[in-house]
Structures are given as C-alpha cells and as structure tokens.
Automatic annotation (TrEMBL):
Top-level lineage group: Eukaryota
Organism of origin: Senna tora
InterPro entries per record: Mem_transp_PIN-like, PILS1/3/4/5/7
A GO-annotated cellular component: endoplasmic reticulum membrane
Pfam families: Mem_trans (PF03547)
Keywords, in A-Z order: Auxin signaling pathway, Endoplasmic reticulum, Membrane, Transmembrane, Transmembrane helix, Transport
Annotated family: Belongs to the auxin efflux carrier (TC 2.A.69.2) family.
Described function: Involved in cellular auxin homeostasis by regulating auxin metabolism. Regulates intracellular auxin accumulation at the endoplasmic reticulum and thus auxin availability for nuclear auxin signaling.
Keyword NAD attached: no
A Gene Ontology biological process term: endoplasmic reticulum to cytosol auxin transport
Secretion signal, residue range per the UniProt entry: none
Protein name (database record): Protein PIN-LIKES 3-like
Taxonomic lineage of the native organism: Eukaryota, Viridiplantae, Streptophyta, Embryophyta, Tracheophyta
Its membrane topology: Multi-pass membrane protein
Length: 422
C-alpha cells in the first residue's frame, strides 16, 4: 500500500478514539456535570468489576483454543519485555531528572505499563474495516484481532497488578518511611531534652528489677537481674519464635489478594479455561452449545466496556491536573520514553524475533506485537495512585500530556508498523 493510504488507514482509528474521548471530556465539564466526580467513580467501579471481566472472558473464550495459545506463545513474553524495558528506561529518567522519591514509582509505572487493552480494542476493529483487506477479510480480521488483543489485555492486566502495583507500593512506602524517620528524629531530640531533667532522672533510678529466664538452666546458670530504666514500667521479653510468627502474620496481612487477583485477571483466567478445555468449550461456545446463552449474555455485557472506558478516559483527563507538582522535564522524559525509545527498541526486538523464526507470519499478529511498544500509559495507573493516595494530581497531568501526544504518535507509528509488516 502507498504511504498516504497507510497514513489514512492508521489515522481513522485514532480519530475515532479522540472523538469519543472528547465527548467524555465535554460531558464532564462543570457546566453539564454528567460525568462528575461521583458519576466517574460509579462508572469506574462498574467497568472494573463488570464490563472489563465480561469483555475479557467472552473474547478469550470465543477466540482462543489450545492450538492458538501455542501459536501465540511469544505475546506474553513480548508484553513482559515492554514492562522490563520501560522500567529500565524509567529508572534512567529518575536518575537524570532527579525525580522526588514519592514520585519515582509513579514515573516507573508510566514508563513500563502501556494501555494494552482499551486502545487496541478500538484501533484493531477499525483498522480491519479501513485496511481494505490488507489484513484479510473483515470478519476474519476481527475474529483474530480480538483474540490477539484480548490475550494482550489479559497479560497486561496481570503484569500491571502484580508488577507495577508493587513498584508503586514499594516507592510509596519508602517515601512515607523517609518522612516518618525525619519526624521521629525531631521527636527524639525533643524527648532527650526532657529526659535529662532532674525529675525524670529520679524516675529512671526507681525502675523495677526484671528477672530474665536463661534457656540454659540445666548447666547451672542462675537467673539474671536486668535493671531497666523505663519510668517504673517492666520490660517484656518476647521469645524469638513469637517474633518470627508475628513477622509472618504481618507479611500475610500485607498481601492484598484483591489487588493481585482483580476482576479482570479472574475473568481472563476463566475465559482461558473455557476456551482451552474442550468440554467447557463445547458447553459454552458454538451454535449448538447447551449453555450458549450464558456466553451470549457475557459478551453483551462486555461490549459496553469499550465506549464506556473511552468516555471515562476523556472525563478522567480533566480531574486534578491543577494539583500536580511534577516538573515539565519529567513529563517530557515520559513522553520520549513511551513514544520514541520504546517503539524503536520494539522494532529491533521484533525484527530479531522474526529472523529467528519465533513469530508466525500473520501480519496482523506482528502489527499488534509492534503496537504494544507505542501505546500511551495504562489507565489502571490512575486507579493504583488513588489506592495509595499519592501522586493523583501528577498522574492526571501525565495522562493529559501523553494522551494529547498519542494522537500524532500513534498515527505515525501505526503507519510505519503497517508498512513494515505488509
């Protein structure tokens, strides 16, 4: 195909995304307040718990089989590579730009996690329609394309909530502990001044004598007396086994299974099981399946995810931008990482994989693998920042900047990717 035709074909899906996103931003204005703060919160909850799991379950169950899973084995690795390379580039950006500690995890999340679900779900069907058969017949292209995108979205959801979630959590905890240590050091200075007062010294001298049992009494050792200056309070000696047990209880309590297994991941797992296991597939999928009405109902609910999420993208871009403290060089660095460095490295990786014969020759499959490196940051990062209550304004500012640049970047890279695979 000629360059101009490729450009128009790549532009149409992006324009559709921009139009629906603009509608979402328009109805979220204060003058209309249709998608106000409470409405967005309720719709995000419905998308998170209902629409997205149903979409993934229905598409994966219908499109994937054991044979197709074997053929698509490189896609989970490719998605993981986008996360690893993005994290490395984000780490370099933090070092160069000297990002504040409480925002370093957020920058790593933006650089590593791309929007692997919502945008490809819109771009690929529109591309199949606009490509004039370049990727095969429209129905064939849609069926295969939705299978590829659904698997990509499933892998992205798993990596985001098991990888990016913990990165943001670790850096947020570091920032909180750093602030806490500063507060404690100032508190120690004030307390030490009061402890040297004569009246407090008299309290220390009257501390109780606490008997500490020695574990080797059979060797003739007697109990030891320990004088504890605790203002008249007895010291409690905790055995090592109790400390270890308490540590395990703390670790178990900190593991958030709801975060590690969000509804999208659960829907993906169920969809994979139904699609891969023959008895389940015969029961739910196909015109003669006895439980086909269940699959049809799930697919009908899942179809509402794409327009709803796109409207929410536009509405969420307007929220809390004024509360951002993120410096402009950091935002520019994130844009360079996502729209320049990652796509260039992705082309090199895919070229090497094709020469080694790791990827089959389907041009639509290769296009989606390349597209995974050129997408804007994942919308789920805004949900993660809201969970920890840190960097909400900064997240909105980065989302607004990156999605504004995505209209140009996605069009140009999609044009180049189509020229590369066709």
């Amino acid at each position: 195909m000629e360059f101009w035709k490729l450009f128009i074909t790549s532009l149409m899906p992006v324009v559709k995304v921009l139009l629906v996103t603009a509608v979402g931003a328009f109805v979220a204005l204060d003058r209309f307040d249709i998608l106000g703060e409470n409405s967005r919160k309720n719709m995000n909850t419905i998308v998170f718990f209902v629409f997205t799991p149903a979409l993934l379950l229905g598409n994966l169950a219908k499109s994937l089989t054991l044979r197709s899973i074997v053929m698509l084995w490189f896609m989970p690795i490719n998605v993981l590579l986008t996360f690893i390379i993005g994290t490395a580039l984000g780490w370099l950006l933090n070092k160069i730009a000297r990002t504040p500690l409480h925002l370093q995890g957020l920058v790593l999340g933006f650089c590593s996690a791309g929007n692997l679900g919502n945008l490809p779900l819109i771009i690929v069907p529109a591309l199949c329609k606009e490509s004039n058969g370049a990727f095969g017949a429209v129905d064939f292209c849609n069926t295969n394309g939705m299978a590829y995108v659904s698997l990509s979205m499933a892998m992205g959801s798993i990596y985001i909530w098991s990888y990016v979630y913990n990165i943001v959590r670790i850096y947020t905890c570091k920032a909180n502990s750093s602030n806490l240590s500063k507060d404690e050091s100032s508190a120690v200075i004030s307390v030490s001044a009061t402890e040297t007062d004569p009246e407090n010294l008299s309290k220390c001298s009257t501390g109780q004598l606490v008997t500490v049992e020695n574990s080797s009494q059979e060797n003739g050792h007697t109990g030891q007396l320990e004088i504890e200056c605790t203002n008249g309070e007895a010291k409690v000696v905790v055995p090592k086994q109790a400390k270890i047990l308490k540590l395990f209880k703390t670790l178990a309590g900190n593991i958030n299974l709801k975060a590690l297994l969000p509804p999208a991941t659960i829907g993906s797992i169920i969809g994979l099981i139904i699609g891969v296991v023959p008895p389940f597939r015969k029961a739910f999928i196909g015109e003669s399946a006895p439980l086909r009405v269940v699959e049809d109902s799930v697919s009908m609910v899942g179809d509402a995810a794409i327009p709803t999420v796109t409207l929410l993208v536009g509405a969420n871009l307007l929220s809390d931008v004024n509360g951002s403290s993120l410096q402009l060089p950091i935002i520019i660095g994130i844009i360079v990482v996502r729209y320049v460095a990652l796509p260039v490295l992705g082309v090199g990786i895919l070229k090497g994989a094709m020469r080694m014969g790791l990827i089959h020759s389907n041009p639509l499959y290769r296009f989606i693998l390349l597209l995974q490196y050129a997408l804007p940051p994942a919308i789920s990062i805004s949900t993660i920042t809201q969970l920890f209550g840190a960097g909400v304004g900064e997240c909105s500012a980065v989302m607004l900047a990156t999605y504004a640049c995505a209209s140009v970047s996605l069009t140009l890279w999609s044009t180049f990717f189509m020229w590369l695979v066709l």
